[in-house]
Amino acid sequence: MNQSSPSSSLAARKMAKWATFAALLAVVVIMLGAWTRLVHAGLGCPDWPGCYGFLTVPQSESSIAIANARFPDTPVDVQKGWPEMIHRYAAGTLGLVVFGLAACAVRNRRLGVPVKLPLFIAGFIVLQGAFGMWTVTLKLWPQVVALHLLGGFTTLSLLTLLTFRLRRQARQEQDRKSLASTPLAGFRPWLYGGLLLVVMQIALGAWTAANYAAVACTDLPTCQGQWWPEGMDFQHGFDITQHVGPNYLGGQLTADGRVAIHVTHRLGAMVVLVYFAALLAMMWRRRGDSGLDNAIRLVAVVLSVQILLGLTNVIFHIPLSIAVAHNAMGAGLLLSVIHLIWQYQLLPGTRNVRATHTTTMNQEVTA
Ligand code: HEM
To answer: Which end is more exposed in the chain, N or C (fewer Cβ atoms within 10 Å of the end residue's Cβ)?
Structure first.
């Protein structure tokens, strides 16, 4: 059936609502994950998917006694169990919504709704669940903690992309009329370069958090009173072969290793800032009536807020609310860049710059 038929649009609209809900829920799950880590509750339940073998955190005297007998090395701490379990319930609900979306896509496949993407997200969320399990069973091994965080951001990005696609289909938007060229043509590789930088910066943030390197530098703009702290140990700081075994709650790295991670995350922020300041300024100057004003502004605002949150984190020694907000705004920055790229790709004359050149050249050769 035609992608622009009324029934196709109706199916897309329904799915778009669910995809939006799933994306919002993914933001909540990501923030709950950060909160769990920040209140040191990542090992609040030593097993998975239950908590000491129960569906909820053991509360009564008898269930606590059973739990402590099952896991004598990690006695029950109810205050730590709940953040972990709330994160798991929210993630479980997100999993169900994502599976529902995938089923809906398969059922409506003849209506032209996207099918591969929802199926991929469903598969990805299973993998993300496995990373959640390994986070616990491998005792907060930093490699897995960082990948779990990146997996959460990836799930959110994919759900947002699905929402964009479904909304576009629901509105039955056609490709805009093709213009020969636009002053914004040629920005595509730079936008993707920016996206890559943001992903790398998020990965550095995840590594900072997973190794508890947040408090390695408590002053600004210097670190431990020095512009380039003496003895920074990049080899250990970025040793991704830290072995499985010890309990990584609170981190196991040397102080010099943590300083190296923290300083690299700061430098990364400066690179991202300079890159986007230049890119957005150039796009702004050439935007004309492209309609990209809001998308460009959004990236600029979110990036500024994210940097301010990062600085506040350091100045006030990682207050819980600011640290959770810094995590969420990292996701926000990623989404705002994806949104800008999406809007940019919809502009006529930006997608097929190379194809247009080739056609023109062919015409010239033929002539
Ligand atoms: C483009 C800008 C930035 C991005 C995308 C970014 C992203 C992130 C992310 C995703 C995390 C992991 C959060 C978590 O797991 O809870 C993080 C952690 C952190 N970031 Fe940034 N960040 C940026 C700029 C900055 C700046 C400018 C500073 C300070 C100078 C900073 C300081 C920190 C600190 C201290 C942590 C560790 C917090 C913790 O352990 O909870 N960030 N960052």
So the answer is: C
**Residue of 205, 334, 330 whose CA lies nearest to 265:** 205
How close is the Cα of 310 to the center of ligand 1, in Å? 5
Structure tokens given for 234:
């990049």
Distance CA 67, CA 70 (A): 5
Beta bridge partners of 226: 223
Residue in 209, 312, 321, 302 with CA at minimum distance from that of residue 262:
209
Question: In this predicted model, what pLDDT tens digit does every residue of 277-333 receive, in sequence order?
Answer: 999 999 999 999 899 999 999 999 999 999 999 999 999 999 999 999 999 999 999
Q: Is the pTM of this model over 0.85?
A: yes
3-class DSSP assignment, residue 20 = helix
Q: In whole angstroms, what is the distance from residue 245 CA to residue 59 CA? A: 29
C-alpha 78/C-alpha 136 separation (Å) is 17
Q: In the structure, which protein residues have their CB atom closer than 6 angstroms to any atom of ligand 1? A: 34, 38, 149, 198, 201-202, 205-206, 208-209, 214, 265-266, 269, 272, 306-307, 310-311, 313-314, 318, 323, 326-327, 330, 333
Residue 6: is the preceding peptide bond cis (ω within 30°)? no
- Grouping H, G, I as helix, E, B as strand and the rest as coil, residue 223 is strand
Beta carbons within 8 Å of 330's beta carbon, 6+ residues apart = 153, 201, 202, 205, 306
| pLDDT per residue as tens digits for the range 252-279 | 899 999 999 999 999 999 999 999 999 9
> Residue 298 in 3-state DSSP?
helix
